[in-house]
Write a structure and sequence with these properties.
The complex is a heterodimer.
Chain A: E1 4-9, H1 11-17, E2 21-25, H2 29-39, H3 44-47, E3 59-63, E4 66-67, E5 83-88
Parallel strand pairs in A: 1-5
Antiparallel strand pairs in A: 1-2, 3-4, 3-5
Chain B: E1 4-9, E2 14-19, H1 29-40, E3 54-58, E4 71-77, E5 84-90, H2 92-99, E6 102-108, E7 118-122, E8 127-131, H3 140-151, E9 155-159, H4 162-165, E10 173-176, E11 182-186, H5 191-197, E12 200-206, H6 218-234, H7 243-247, H8 252-258, H9 280-290, E13 293-296, E14 307-309, H10 324-330, H11 339-352, H12 356-368, H13 377-388, H14 392-398, H15 401-407, E15 415-416, E16 419-420, H16 430-438, H17 451-456, H18 470-486, H19 492-498, H20 500-514, H21 520-541, H22 553-556, H23 570-574
Parallel strand pairs in B: 1-6, 7-12
Antiparallel strand pairs in B: 1-2, 3-4, 3-6, 4-5, 7-8, 9-10, 9-12, 10-11, 13-14, 15-16
Helix pairs in contact in B: 1-18, 1-21, 6-19, 6-20, 10-12, 11-13, 12-15, 13-14, 16-18, 18-21, 19-20
Classes of the chains: A alpha+beta, B alpha+beta.
């Protein structure tokens, strides 16, 4: 039984989705993002490369503050109460 | 017409024009200020004594109309670090100097009467030093309004504020923004105090009728300019409606907070949910609701336009931009999560002539020392009044983080070489820690911005927890020294690190202006040479590799939420200086 995780959306991603936070289910980041796209179909083009099941390079996904690229990518496991944060490419200084 | 160097002697109150020596011909910006300081200032000179000098230099391409080329470097021996300092800013003042054909201004000596202040007026064909005593003790917003009334609207201004008048180590140098307000800064390192120590209160530069910009190879320059403009227009961070244009630099608040690297309450934690209240997204909404301005350019050639004009509610009392660093320093780092309080603290810094990063860190250390509670914005604003009134407490605070830490018995003092650490905690983002530790400037994120690959996925990818970051920081520091010398805004690097044509554009424009044939490798070597000059000055001033270290508490205290310490080995830090 998968548990709810908090998905936080930022900057343009949040504007496109029209919301900042969702509670979704899934046992991996991939499953949670699938749920996210079902809930907010407008995000599919933003999050994925065209016609591939790969995340766009223009997206940063953190699980509990760690970029999933340095964990197990989309297959990173998520647990109850975990936070997933999704950003477009941002910069400043 | 050949470019010139203006030598301003504050002892005998003369201004002389000098020819540019051959060895300075291909230098500009940081390369030039650091070289002149290395050549002319004894490394053991007292920063506020007669033998220190203050140098201003526009970049190589500044004034040409190449995109984002409106940068000006200020250099000297820093009262904050005791080492060499270059602090650059984006301001219309930069292009005005460049168009006047001024390669550098060297301010030296000090007047016999230490209570006298002067204004350097750069007219069309001559320069004058006139009395400026009437502006002593006055805030810079009001002073700039009065200077515009007196000298007309067609001027740009550089100024030293009230903090500089008391010789404060955290006094920055202020410049006009496009609206004529005191909101652009060579903030870091106390160069405002160097300026005031020489009795120089303002420089007022009239926009020249005759443009003296020289471009030796127009064709190469124009090709380069187009390549760079194209790269900036394409990259997600720098393009129109991209991250910087839409939300400003404070767009970083959320991602650094979520990454566990946004220091809270004097570097005691790395994230706090309340940080979202002061994010770039929140601020952009508020600016729009209030009738402020966003996007906005800090200087005429900018096409990124990350700046803004923050105001009080109702669009009243403009402050200028609230940058990411300022929002963090005066906000979450002090336990303050309210943009209006941050805006007023930023206004006070701009008005007094203080660096926001150092001031925010100082308030946080004062909070740690029990002078006020974390989160007490009202009391924080009252502390700024102590500086206006030049009280003993105000003087302590205006001298920065280390001085204040000592005064209040605090041992969590976030500094390197006397300069406070900016808005990225190096325990959870280690590459930026290598830059903080090793740059000749004291803790400075802009000196080698490892955040780009570590967090933002720009210019490659690097795990922020990975410790082997010496090579990364070295290359970034070299490239940055070159960009700071060219006169480009560092933010062009977001695009040029990912788009090769953009980098070619940078090199082409420099070659076009100078008539040189530099390659990208030559540019990196140029940057390495600037660093070498700066480090050699610091060595002679008394620094060794033992000073290239982060504060002790960062190696001992774990930073929540990741509970990391700064564990990059000293040998890795020292590798930055190996060829």
């Amino acid at each position: 039984m998968s548990e709810k995780v908090k998905v936080k959306l930022f900057a343009q991603i949040s504007e496109i989705a029209g919301r900042k936070e969702l509670l979704l289910e899934g046992e991996t980041v991939a499953e949670v993002i699938d749920e996210l796209v079902k809930e907010v179909p407008e995000l599919e083009d933003e999050l994925f490369k065209e016609e591939q099941n790969e995340l766009s390079e223009d997206i940063i996904v953190l699980k509990e503050g760690r970029n999933i690229n340095y964990l197990n990518g989309l297959q990173s496991e998520v647990g109850k109460g975990d936070n997933i944060s999704i950003f477009p490419v941002v910069g400043g200084g | 017409m050949a470019k010139k160097i203006l030598r301003v002697n504050m002892e005998d109150l003369t201004v002389k024009e000098e020819e540019v020596p051959e060895e300075y011909e291909n230098l500009g910006g940081r390369a030039l200020t650091s070289q002149i300081i290395a050549d002319e200032v004894p490394p053991k000179a007292h920063p506020l004594g007669p033998n220190n000098k203050l140098v201003f230099a526009p970049g190589i391409v500044t004034g040409t109309g190449s995109p984002n080329s409106g940068r000006l470097s200020a250099g000297g021996k820093s009262p904050l670090t005791g080492g060499i300092k270059e602090s650059n800013a984006g301001t219309p003042f930069a292009k005005t100097l460049a168009k006047k054909g001024i390669k550098a201004i060297i301010v030296e000596g000090k007047p016999e009467n230490k209570d006298r202040y002067y204004l350097l007026k750069l007219n069309e064909d001559e320069s004058d030093l006139v009395h400026a005593d009437e502006w002593v003790g006055k805030g810079l917003y009001e002073a700039y309004e009065e200077l515009h009334e007196e000298f007309g609207e067609n001027i740009e201004i550089t100024g030293a504020g009230i903090a500089a008048e008391i010789g404060a180590s955290n006094a920055g140098i202020s410049y006009t923004d496009p609206e004529g307000m005191s909101s652009r800064y060579s903030g870091r390192g106390g160069l405002g105090a160097v300026m005031a120590s020489k009795g120089l209160k303002f420089i007022v530069a009239e926009e020249p009728k005759e443009d003296r910009i020289e471009i030796k190879d127009e064709e190469t320059f124009n090709e380069g300019r187009k390549k760079l403009a194209k790269a900036l227009a394409e990259h997600d961070i720098t393009k129109k409606d991209g991250a910087l244009n839409s939300y400003g630099t404070a767009v970083l608040v959320n991602i650094i907070n979520e990454s566990g690297g946004l220091p809270q309450r004097n570097f005691s934690e790395g994230s706090d949910d309340r940080s979202a209240e002061v994010s770039g997204e929140k601020k952009a909404e508020a600016v729009q609701e209030r009738g402020g301005v966003r996007p906005h350019k800090c200087s005429p050639s900018c096409i990124i336009q990350c700046s803004e004009i923050w105001t009080k509610e109702g669009g009243e009392d403009p402050v200028g931009v609230l940058e990411y660093e300022s929002v963090w320093a005066l906000g979450p780092n002090c336990g303050i999560y309210d943009l209006d309080t941050i805006g007023e603290l930023n206004r006070a810094c701009n008005d007094l002539g203080l660096d926001t990063i150092e001031m925010g860190n100082t308030i946080a250390v004062a909070m740690e020392g029990g002078l006020l509670d974390f989160g007490d914005g009202v009391k924080a604003l009252e502390l700024m009044d102590e500086i206006y009134e030049k009280t003993p407490l105000g003087r302590i605070l205006a001298n920065g983080v280390e001085f204040t830490g000592e005064a209040f018995g605090v041992n969590r003092v976030p500094t390197v070489k006397g300069q406070s650490i900016p808005a990225y905690d190096p325990r959870s983002i280690k590459g930026i820690g290598v830059t903080y530790a090793t740059t000749p400037m004291g803790a400075d994120h802009t000196a080698g911005y490892a955040i780009a690959p570590e967090i933002l996925g720009v210019g490659g990818d690097a795990d922020p927890f990975e410790k082997e970051k010496g090579e990364l920081s070295k290359n970034l520091q070299r490239a940055t020294a070159a960009i700071d010398s060219a006169g480009y805004c560092l933010f062009i690097a977001f695009a040029t690190m990912d788009i090769d044509e953009g980098m070619e554009g940078v090199v082409d424009t420099v070659n076009g202006v100078l008539g040189t044939d530099y390659s990208i490798e030559d540019v990196m070597a140029f940057g390495a040479n600037v660093l070498k000059t700066e480090r050699e000055f610091n060595r002679k001033a008394g620094f060794s590799k033992e000073d290239d270290r982060l504060p002790e508490f960062m190696k001992e205290e774990k930073l929540p939420p990741h509970n990391e310490v700064f564990d990059v080995p000293d040998e890795e830090l020292d590798s930055v200086w190996e060829d």
